Hints:
This protein is mainly α and 206 residues long. It is 90% helix and 0% strand.
Amino acid sequence: MMRLRTRLLGTVAGTGLAFAVLMATSISVTRDVEDRLTLVQKQQIPRLEIGPKLQADFSVLERSYQDAVAAHDTELLARTGELERNLNGELERGAAVFDARAVAELQNAIREYHEAAVDVSRRMIAGRGDEDTVAAIAVMQQKQTNAKSLLARLATVDHAALKEGFDGAYEAEHAGARRQLAVMAACLIPVLSRSMWSLRYIVGAL
């Protein structure tokens, strides 16, 4: 009787251990999938929200110089400084999403464009059309093109990386399912064998 009790307790303990291992495996698989999805959520999804806003704000900044020149209004031109600071502030807040070096490079490019655009706008408001103004316009246009290019590169959603992130989560889920099946087989087969052995012992003892 004591031997039977010992074998039954061993079977129960083995079953409990098997379920504990399966539970731990399931938690590990879930965390792996969640980590991959969290990476996509932090790095790619915010680009869908921040990117278009940055580009819209840059377009507003571009038009603000034109409006100031058209109105011959130096006060209106002075207000463009606030727009430039707000735009670079938005970039600063998006540093967690974007590459830090790319953000710093773009901020510098926007500042340089702003300084050049203000200089050209002041010349045009003053009615200056000399060769120096023409050269300043060419420099401003180069800085404008550079800033727009860097912004487009930074703000555009990387569809390949987005797909790679979701594919990674999908693969992690399927790999986890295969791992769970392997662990289940490794744990339950010995438990079932021990249970059958115990059952045969019980039947033989009757």
